[in-house]
């Protein structure tokens, strides 16, 4: 399988393999890597896959994309990653051996509503599903190259902790994670800062999340420092993260159906469009998906596009801080991957339109006079629809789900359930992806229910564990010194 950039002007242009793009972020031309063609899944394969464990299913799907990893190595990597021990934090009545158990909420008037649990991993959010595999893939590739990598990132919560738990103890890898000092919840802070592994460095910056992100940019823009210190990232545009997420769309489908003539729809609480982009890829591979429902919170860049054809990014000052904070984005970094398919895989158009995002802040595909194109009319061919949810909707939905189905869901999943209920169709099961467990966002659970969310076993006293971190001023020079001192490079 070969990969090319969404902005490549020529399909015969420079192609890369899976391992060649594994450790990279953006393509050199500023685009995102995509497979040159989508591998197709046959009806016979889909039937055979009904019997597979999660790890074996992951192997079957990933081998179509990671064709330069020997099959025995790939099999070992997925079996090491997708174990019931690593994904043990599912609800007590769910089966950890399934890795991503499907929970039926309701079957009524021919309509089925179900929850796909993706948050049983070490940090209680769906990012572990891909990040745990990435940790093993990175270690594999760095060992093969006799190389090392120093991952630099900024986090306000979920991504940083998922990266640290994936990379802890891995050979050849160090993680330097910047977070705004005193601004994360006590639970999230404890999760990250209590890690004892010597290859994990928590840097609490006296500032806000944007300061942390600016420092990462400043350090990465110092190209000689970046190459000398072997600086890399694990952000959501990484192709391996996207492709690892394709697996659970197949898994959810296979659990919800008993033959391949049936269709299902998925609703995905979305921010950077990474999760639902994997659903799009699964559908392009031939998974029988009726609708892909994008659920946003008050930060509705994506909902606006799927209703109007106008993609208009926001400034960071216009980004609202909401009670589903992992969806508080102003620009959906993986959206370019879907736009590439919508625009008929025309790299020159993608380059032009996303160039306009940089200069003008928006593009318009509505087909109206003076717009930039009319491809919005084709969105329905890809199954995409959308909806949005507010703080009040989250509170109402958390209460409703507790009363009607007896379980407590987190704020992001609540955005998903709210929007999913607006798009249900008879005969087509609607699967909502559960992107985090309620324990991570307990403040809003208290506001909705007047009581605390249950914590999985082992997390009861996490705030009392000893913490390891340094506090630093928001100065990229100081951070560079700290990194250099600890890499010895
Ligand atoms: C990251 C995250 C999301 C958004 O996922 P994207 O891939 O960025 O669209 C939603 N919910 C939770 C809990 C997350 O951590």
Q: How many separate domains?
A: 1
Shape: globular
The chain-level structural class is alpha/beta
Number of helices: 18
Name the descriptors:
single chain; 489 residues; Rossmann fold; six-stranded mixed beta sheet; five-stranded parallel beta sheet; 40% helix; 15% strand; binds pyridoxal-5'-phosphate
Describe this structure in words.
The chain is of the alpha/beta class. The protein has one domain: Rossmann fold (3-Layer(aba) Sandwich). Helices cover 40% and strands 15% of the residues. The protein is built from 18 helices and 15 strands. The strands form four sheets. Strands 3-4-14-9-10-13 form a six-stranded mixed β-sheet, sandwiched between helices. Strands 8-5-6-7-15 form a five-stranded parallel β-sheet, with helices on both faces. A hairpin with a 2-residue loop joins strand 3 and strand 4. Helix 4 packs across helix 5 and helix 5 packs across helix 6. The longest helix has 19 residues. The mean pLDDT is 95. Bound molecules: pyridoxal-5'-phosphate. Pyridoxal-5'-phosphate (PLP) binds next to helix 11.
